[in-house]
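FAQ: What does the model actually see?

It sees only this:
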Amino acid sequence: MSMPVIALGRQFGSGGREIGRKLAEQLGCSFYDRELISLAAKRAEVREELFAGKDEKAGNPWLFRGIYEGGALVRRGRSAEDILFEMQSQVILELAGQGPCIIVGRCADHVLQQAGVPVCSLFLCAPFAWRVAHRMEIEGIPEAQAADTVRRLDKQRGKYYSTYTGRDWGLPENYDLCINTSVLGIDGTARALQEHLTGNRMFS
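And it is asked to produce this:
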């Protein structure tokens, strides 16, 4: 098995979580997304509430409340965002060592590459209007609210990625494969990825 880990980056509203879950089922491998918050809190030996609202956000180096709780792995005095990133990075490396899996966001591509772990980095995108419509359908919210959310989360994820990796988020050359999910839709994109990965013997 030459490529046991998939790092899945995504624009907000492009269907990353849905496609990632479907792909994991098709490949018969583990899937990690929001579970990484709980796993990071457990590793840090802190209350999960400490990381509420901090996931995939960059810490402000000039305005933050230092954290002085947690176990021996926590570098005290840092922001909750920085501690969460550090703990999630450790968790990602641990999970990658356990076997095939898909890890959504959290700069997993960079974390694994820096550690010399074989990784297939994917980035899912879609036109703004399609993503807004997708969020409206999923959440049952007005168009204006969905559009504001898509803009805000894209900006947040971009800043998070650039802060912790020093690279541009969503830049095609930073990934092994970029896909416009609006072309094939959620199910079609998951099937296409499964066929590509197994066809290249990454998960055969």
